[in-house]
C-alpha cells in the first residue's frame, strides 16, 4: 500500500474516532508524517500510534495530535509549543496558526526538526533549543500554548505568557500513568479549566540536554 492510501485510511480513522473539524483533518492530510519518523520506521509512518524518535523520545500518536490541535482552536493565532520532538505537531499547527514558536530541550531533536521544517518549506515556525519551563519571554504573550510533554503541574511561567484575552493552553498534567489533558482558558485574571481525555506522554523535564 502507498503512503498516500495509508494516509487516507488514517484520516478516515481519525474521523471515526471523533475528529470532526474538517480544517483539522485537512491539516493532518497536508503534513507528510514520514518526514518526521526515523528511517527504519518509514513503513509505520501512518499507523495511529506513537513511535520512537532520537534522544529516547517519541512522536505522538496522530489521534492525540489531531485531538490537541482541535482543542487548541489555533486558526490564525500565535502559538507556543513546548516539546518540539520530531517537529510533527508543530508542522500540523503551522497549517492553521499564523506563527508557531516551538521549544525543545534535546539539541539533536532541535536540529532534525529544523531540517524537516526547511525541507517542507514551513516558514511560519520559529524554533529554539531551551527549557520550556522558562518560556519564550521575547515572543510572549501567546494566544495559544500547547505542551506536548506531561507536567506534574501547570508551569507558572507559561501561564504568565498566555494572553489574558481569551488565551487557551492545552497541556497534559499528572504523574506517570495518570495524565489527563487540561484545557485552560484565561480571561483577565480568571482561569477556567476543562478536563479532557486521559493520555500517556513523556515527562516534561527541567534543563537542557546537549546529546
Ligand atoms: N510534539 C512532539 C512530541 C514529542 S515528545 C512531536 O510531535 O513529535 C515530547 C518532547 O518534549 C520530547 O522531545 C522532550 O524532549 C520534550 N521536552 C520535555 N521537557 C521539555 C522542556 N522542559 N522543554 C522543552 N522540551 C521538553
Question: Keywords, please?
Answer:
seven-stranded mixed β-sheet, 211 residues, binds S-adenosyl-L-homocysteine, alpha/beta, two-stranded antiparallel sheet, 6 helices, Rossmann fold
Structure report:
This protein has 211 residues and is α/β, with parallel strands linked by helices. The protein has a single domain, classed as Rossmann fold. The protein is 28% helix and 25% strand. The protein contains six helices and nine strands, in the order ααββαβαβαββαβββ. The protein has helices spanning 3-16, 22-30, 62-72, 88-94, 107-119, 156-160, and strands at 51-52, 58-59, 78-82, 99-104, 125-129, 144-147, 165-173, 179-187, 190-199. The strands form two sheets. It has a seven-stranded mixed beta sheet, with helices on one face. A two-stranded antiparallel ribbon has the order 1-2. It is globular and about 50 Å long. The protein starts with a helix and ends in a 12-residue tail after the last strand. The model has no long low-confidence stretch (mean pLDDT 97). Bound molecules: S-adenosyl-L-homocysteine (SAH).
Amino acid at each position: 500500500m502507498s503512503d498516500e492510501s495509508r494516509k487516507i485510511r488514517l484520516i478516515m480513522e481519525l474521523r471515526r474516532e471523533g475528529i470532526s473539524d474538517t480544517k483539522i483533518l485537512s491539516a493532518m492530510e497536508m503534513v507528510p508524517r514520514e518526514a518526521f519518523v526515523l528511517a527504519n520506521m518509514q513503513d509505520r509512518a501512518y499507523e495511529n500510534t506513537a513511535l520512537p524518535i532520537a534522544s529516547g523520545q517519541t512522536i505522538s500518536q496522530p489521534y492525540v495530535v489531531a485531538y490537541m490541535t482541535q482543542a487548541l482552536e489555533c486558526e490564525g493565532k500565535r502559538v507556543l509549543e513546548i516539546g518540539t520532538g520530531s517537529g510533527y505537531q508543530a508542522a500540523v499547527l503551522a497549517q492553521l496558526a499564523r506563527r508557531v514558536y516551538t521549544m525543545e530541550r534535546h539539541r539533536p531533536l532541535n536540529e532534525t526538526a529544523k531540517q524537516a521544517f526547511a525541507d517542507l518549506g514551513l516558514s511560519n515556525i520559529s524554533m529554539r533549543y531551551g527549557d520550556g519551563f522558562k518560556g519564550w519571554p521575547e515572543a510572549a504573550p501567546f494566544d495559544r500554548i500547547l505542551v506536548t510533554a506531561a507536567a506534574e503541574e501547570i508551569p507558572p511561567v507559561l501561564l504568565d505568557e498566555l494572553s489574558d484575552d481569551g488565551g487557551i493552553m492545552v497541556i497534559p498534567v499528572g504523574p506517570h500513568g495518570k495524565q489527563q489533558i487540561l484545557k485552560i482558558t484565561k480571561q483577565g485574571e480568571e482561569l477556567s479549566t476543562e478536563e479532557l481525555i486521559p493520555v500517556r506522554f513523556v515527562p516534561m523535564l527541567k534543563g537542557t540536554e546537549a546529546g
